[in-house]
Specification:
heterodimer, A: 110 residues, mainly beta, 7-stranded mixed β-sheet, B: 6-stranded mixed β-sheet, 5-stranded antiparallel β-sheet
Amino acid sequence: DVKVTQSSRYLVKRTGEKVFLECVQDMDHENMFWYRQDPGLGLRLIYFSYDVKMKEKGDIPEGYSVSREKKERFSLILESASTNQTSMYLCASSSLYTQYFGPGTRLTVL
Amino acid sequence: GQNIDQPTEMTATEGAIVQINCTYQTSGFNGLFWYQQHAGEAPTFLSYNVLDGLEEKGRFSSFLSRSKGYSYLLLKELQMKDSASYLCAVEMEYGNKLVFGAGTILRVKS
C-alpha cells in the first residue's frame, strides 16, 4: 500500500511565523505535490516537484516555497504566515498517473 | 484559465442510482480523474478516463466525452457510506499536474 504521511494533522500558528509542513512518501515516487483545499474552491495546486532539488510553481505559489532534498520528502514552507493561509493542506505523490494523498494538515493562522 | 464545473451538492436515496456531472474547459487535456473524499479524510482514487466511453468498476462507472468536454461518475446501488465529496480533476498535458473542480457533496439518505 502506498503511504503518504504528513507531519501534523492540526497546526495553529501566529501571523508572521515561519511554518514548515512536511510530507513523506514510501513508494519511491518521482512526483510530489502540495495543494490547499478551501470550501467552494476545491484543491488548488501550490507547488510540485518531478525530481530531487527540482520544483515548479503551481497555480497559487505566492507566499509559499518548497524544498525537496530527498526523493521521499517534500516540504512546504510559509515564510511569514498570514491569516489568509488558514486552510487544509494536502500533499500527494505519484509515479505514472494516479496521485496518492496524505491525510492533510489543517493549519490555522491567528 | 482553466474551468471545471460540477454541481455543488446532490442528495439521493439508499439503493438508488446517481450521476454526478463534470464539464471542463482547459488549455490542455491528458485524462480525467474522479476522486472520493470523506469528511476529514484524504481524497482516494476512483477512476481515470483517457479515451471516450464508459469505464466500469464495480458499483462505480465513469464516462468521458473529449469532444464535449464532459464526464460523469455513475454510482449504483447507493449505500450510506457513499456519502462523501466527489472530485473531478483534469490532467493537463504535461506530467501529472491536475486541475480540480470544487467537488460535489453527495448525501445519501435512508
